[in-house]
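Morning. Coffee machine broken again, so started the prediction first thing and wrote up yesterday's gels while waiting. Chain of 450 residues, entered below exactly as on the submission form.
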Amino acid sequence: MALGFLDRSRTIAPAGWSRWLIPPAALSIHLSIGQAYSWSVFKTPLEKYLALNGTQSALPFQLGIVMLGLSAALFGTRVERNGPRWAMFVSLCCFVSGFLISALGVATQQYWLVVLGYGGVGGIGLGMGYISPVSTLIKWFPDRPGMATGIAIMGFGGGALIASPWSNAMLTGFGGDRGAIALAFLVHGLVYAVFMAMGVLLIRVPADDWLPTGWNPVQDAKQHTLITTANVSARNAIKTPQFWFLWIVLCFNVSAGIGILEKASPMIQDFFRATPIPVSAAAATGFLALLSLANMLGRIGWSSTSDLVGRKNIYRLYLGVGAVLYLVIALSTNSSKLLFIICAMLILSFYGAGFATIPAYLKDLFGTYQVGAIHGRLLTAWSVAGVLGPLIVNAIADSQKSAGKSGPALYTTSMYIMIGLLVLGFVANELIRPVNARFHEPVAQEVTSS
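Came back before lunch.
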């Protein structure tokens, strides 16, 4: 399939190309699509000027996350075949078009266009952009895959730190009315088009025989029992128990983290409402910012650590210590704000790190052959967790409130459910072993398909 400038063959790096140019290319995409985490900035203005309720104003974001998982799963193999430049370009077109369609929808008061644009078309851009640099980074950094994917995926977690104040400033500066929302969407689309184009132009893949200077893959595999020098196709990977154990690990780790993240502001206010010094709305906003920072830093910090201690060990930390932290919150109730904040920040750092470390874990188990496509299929766990985590926390809190309870009692049951999910994830991680050789690709097939 000839793709011209976008074809994978046109992106093979010449001799001497610096691999340190690849993380900035990946960041240009992930920092852009990470805007999705700042959708809440638009919720209240949309509700006010388009007469929406909270459920309706959340639809574009929810559909976007669902489409992220579905498009990553459906197009993962094509991303591997056509290369990262093609995938980044498709992501750019879809993500930017989503904003432009949404701008038209707001301007014409057709909210279905916002849902279709931001959630449907833009959501495809999210999925394609999220997986597009992953296998390329792993191939450039086989000696430090956790660090490499952590840098890029940190951008997805940190994109909201840029987009939130920027969006707020535009809404205020453009007049704060319906026209301001439409204009903010338009500016987002145009600016992100330029920024993402930098990644499209800069991305390169290494030559098939390239290896980092001084790195020996055989020696690396000998030092870590789960690291393989063989390769497994995406089609075969989903037939292995290792894939489904990792699916459980990712799903339950994400469910536990997103349960706090989605309801962070009202949760901390509810916890300490009856204390001598309750938490104000402004302070709750600051708490949310701290969680976003922990989410972002965890993606690069813990995933880089996994290169030293191994992926199985680092997930023991995420899942095991995460369960203990939830238990501390449940037992300490509202006795200490500082303890609550520290525990929540650590949980969110494990949440973000789980996203960043999973591609390296996949590389260890299945090799680099089609790791991007395998990652895309695994991201369906995110789609499930994005519904499961908030549903557990919100449904139980609403039920407890209807029963006349308040304060920490609104969330205690949810905390214990999260502990159970993390323990199940811990067990799934413990069951992971090297992939059986019958799933490995013949060497000739790898060369032909690459």
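The chain has two domains: 18-202, 217-449. Going to sketch it on the whiteboard this afternoon.
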